[in-house]
Structure of GTPase Der:
Amino acid sequence: MAKPVVAIVGRPNVGKSTIFNRIVGERVSIVEDTPGVTRDRLYSSAGWLNHEFNIIDTGGIELDDEDQILRQVREQAELAIDEANVIIFMVDAKTGLTPADEEIARILYKTKKPVVVAVNKVDNPKQRDAIYDFYALGFGEPVPISGAHGTGLGDLLDKVAESFPEQEEEEYDDDVIRIAVIGRPNVGKSSLVNALLGEERVIVSDVAGTTRDAIDTLLERDGQSFVLIDTAGMRKRGKVYEKTEKYSVLRAMKAIERCDVVLMVLNAEEGIREQDKRIAGYAHEAGRGMIIVVNKWDAITKDERTHTMFTRQIRDHFQFIDYAPILFVSAKTKQRMHTILPKVQEVAEQHALRIPTHVLNDLLMDAVTLNPPPTYKGRRLKIKYGTQVSVKPPTFVLFVNDPELMHFSYERYLINKIREAFPYQGTPIRIFIRQK
Ligand code: GDP
Ligand code: GDP
């Protein structure tokens, strides 16, 4: 189920990124070794009371000409209108209402989406009167906040959450495998999608989705249904922000959220780029299944070592997704294209695999006997028992005498032991440690 999306708009320096960071807060990264993923100010998951949502700081999407501030904020506001369910329109109590604020307001009038005005930098209660100016924007009662002190955020998020849309029905049956095709421009995503749809044994029913931004295609192969979420296909008409790299990342992230399995497409001719890592890191944190697809395999000169070298390079760059199988394909010559959907099906099964509790506990006890936890300050970690609490991705809780005694490297050892017995190909595994 897609979470609601909240976008923050406002001219530069009103405090968008300060508030973004406050709202995102200490979202603990599930893996410490995924660089830059959770700290990015662009897009993040967040929570308030029992609401889960995603938040975009449109100020993080910078457009080409930096000095054209008005054009920037205009584009950023349009992006918010296109992408968000609720918009936080941020203004600055210290400067009061400015022409740039009015310009943004004019753009936001065009949308029916809820807009909440947040007046930032109300650092003490005496300054609350500053909000009255901003009634003139025409979006109802402004909410005073302070990024510096963190005050008012509760009221702001209450108001935002009131406007969240009703939770939509899940669009597809539970047994349909949803696939997101992700990658930088030009790696061959569209070509891959077309080649998959053109495969003989695939039956394409129809193209769904008019309310969504993505183009979803339903297909069936050997009795298994799939939905292809095509990020290359979902282009808006002539928006400037479309050409920016950050926006394409944003799009990829939205598709990742709706899928079970990510096809991370790389271009054999170009190798691996920083952006690939960010997207892969996001898919990993979101707990999706993952397959790395190296496309354009026809286009490079190969000898008997090329395959091994490529594999090693990928493993070096993507250490945090060492579980992801790698396929070398060509959308152009159709080489190995027929292996993609069966692999997706395999990964989807692993992603949803449950280990019986007694098998898990036998496995844990064997692992501990083989390699007992080291002592820390004279005390030793004791694992009482473990249980699998969920799937997609497989998630385990281990009950121990004292969670402080669990060392990162020992946790990794246990995950490796689980993977030795149950390879969990293509899926991340999560472990939570609790006191018992
Ligand atoms: P953005 O350009 O809208 O993302 O704004 P920033 O978050 O970068 O903030 C711009 C400046 O305003 C920075 O110097 C912040 O430290 C400052 N700032 C942000 N929030 C507050 C606040 O609540 N009170 C005060 N006094 N300053 C703030
Ligand atoms: P997208 O932007 O990721 O959707 O990439 P496209 O599918 O539009 O492909 C970008 C370019 O790469 C096009 O010129 C394609 O013809 C070319 N291309 C795609 N797949 C292959 C492939 O397997 N081999 C070769 N040689 N070219 C390919």
